[in-house]
Write a structure and sequence with these properties.
single chain, 459 residues, mainly alpha, Ammonium transporter fold, globular
Length: 459
């Protein structure tokens, strides 16, 4: 028996949202699995990919059993004021009523119209973001974190860190009520993963000394394939966040690609004019930094703003990686792929620039009764308060995520060592997973070059 679609459902919105969600999932599996597997030393290729796959599946279980409700459900009343705007009430989203109902999220006073697709579409779309965040974090601890510790850490981090970020900024929490915005996850995802990855790298401890000094990306064409999936998948990352297949979605996609291209070229220019050799790894760094920086701003800024964000995203993270990265603190903390620079710094940059460059003509929602349009305007468009809101939100995400990640790691360490023993680190995949890509003895030797801020070599 054929059941007609409910009257609210718009097939275009629903199709685009599911497609965008699939694009974002492809960024994780296979995108980041391939990228990480190509960038790390050959003996860590399988372990790096396995960390991605394990995180992806673990987060899905967390998400449908309690995580989605904690991110987008009713507020958990922890106390007066701010305490009631931190997290949602946990619970599963697997009932027939939930899977067949209309998608809803707290709309605050945005004037945003009701969504035109069912709940499973929104649940799956938001899962894709929840899954990729700890996968990004993994880039800071590749090459030494105990796999058993990783599979304990991920669900705890997704529960107590990611859901708080998401609720505070996207689920109607107190940062959203204050006026802070994050179009598609510059703060929720990239700043969160960046600061948590840095803390994790410090707590877990470094790789073997010889691996820090000699960590060649064993397959750059493989890395390029992963990076390409990441870049094109970002069309769904930012293009899906208006929640409608509308003009703003199209603008967000165009702005995303403008910023990525500009940042890639700016990074390469910094390499050339600083007497460094331009490399594929540098190009990937620039691309990632540009994609991250435009993420909090994609649908709020116009094309000129996207270009400016892209150029700065190719310069500022480059400076922190190769100048700040030489300071004692950053030399002590072994952030394998430089997640601090390409995600935390780039995400923070994009979020703050949103407070300056948000163009009120880019995204406009009208209230249901024809009330005045509501939009987002930055300092350069007459709204200085927006920059203040963005700065406060950045400080809150960095402070909370750092403390919570530290606490979770210390809890996990009570039950499982966070770092593999040196004997296992010397062997890698063969010792951990009883399999290898190519035996480590066959690894070629070439002069070292930077790999996401670490010392390695291109082959």
């Amino acid at each position: 028996m054929y059941l007609p679609d409910p009257s609210y459902l718009n097939s275009g919105d629903n199709s685009w949202q599911l497609t965008a969600a699939t694009f974002v999932c492809l960024q994780s599996v296979p995108g980041l699995a391939i990228l990480y597997g190509g960038l790390v030393k050959r003996k860590w290729a399988l372990n790096s990919a396995m960390m991605v796959v394990a995180a992806f599946t673990l987060v899905l279980m967390v998400w449908v059993l309690w995580g989605y409700s904690m991110s987008f459900g009713d507020a958990l009343k922890l106390g007066p004021g701010i305490l009631s705007g931190i997290i949602g009430v946990p619970g599963p989203v697997l009932s027939a009523a939930q899977e067949m109902g209309r998608a809803q999220i707290p709309l605050l006073n945005s004037g945003m119209p009701s969504l035109r697709f069912p709940s499973p579409t929104l649940i799956y779309f938001q899962f894709a973001f929840a899954a990729i965040t700890p996968i990004i974090l993994a880039g800071a601890v590749l090459g030494r974190m105990n796999f058993k510790a990783w599979i304990l850490f991920v669900p705890l981090w997704a529960t107590f860190v990611y859901t708080v970020n998401a609720f505070m900024l996207w689920g109607g929490g107190w940062l959203a009520q204050m006026g802070a915005v994050d179009y598609s996850g510059g703060y929720v995802i990239h700043v969160g993963a960046g600061i948590s990855g840095f803390i994790a790298a410090a707590v877990v401890g470094p790789r073997l000394k010889r691996d820090r000094e000699h960590f060649p990306p064993h397959n750059l064409l493989m890395a390029l394939m992963g990076a390409g999936i990441l870049w094109l998948g970002w069309n769904g990352f930012n293009g899906g966040d208006p929640y409608f297949a509308n003009a703003d979605a199209a603008a967000a996609v165009l702005n995303t690609n403008i910023a990525a291209a500009a940042a890639l070229l700016a990074w390469l220019a910094m390499d050339v004019f600083s007497d460094r050799k331009p490399s594929l790894v540098g190009a990937i760094n620039g691309m990632v930094a540009g994609l991250v920086a435009i993420t909090p701003a994609a649908g709020y800024v116009n094309g000129v703003g996207a270009l400016a964000i892209g150029v700065l995203a190719g310069i500022v993270p480059w400076l922190t990686m190769f100048r700040l990265g030489e300071t004692r603190l950053f030399r002590k903390v072994d952030d394998t792929l430089g997640v601090f620079h390409t995600h935390l710094v780039a995400g923070a940059l994009g979020g703050l620039l949103t407070g300056l460059l948000a163009d009120p003509r880019m995204i406009v929602y009208f209230g249901a009764k024809g009330t005045a349009p509501v939009s987002v305007a930055g300092l350069f468009y007459g709204n200085g308060a927006q920059f203040v809101h963005q700065a406060v939100a950045l400080a809150v995400i960095v402070g909370y995520d750092a403390l919570a990640t530290f606490g979770i790691l210390k809890l996990v360490a009570v039950f499982v060592p966070l770092r593999h023993p040196d004997a296992i680190l010397a062997t890698g995949d063969a010792a951990i997973h009883d399999s290898v890509v190519i035996h480590p003895d066959h690894e070629p030797v070439h002069p070292p070059v930077p790999v996401f801020g670490a010392v390695g070599e291109e082959t």
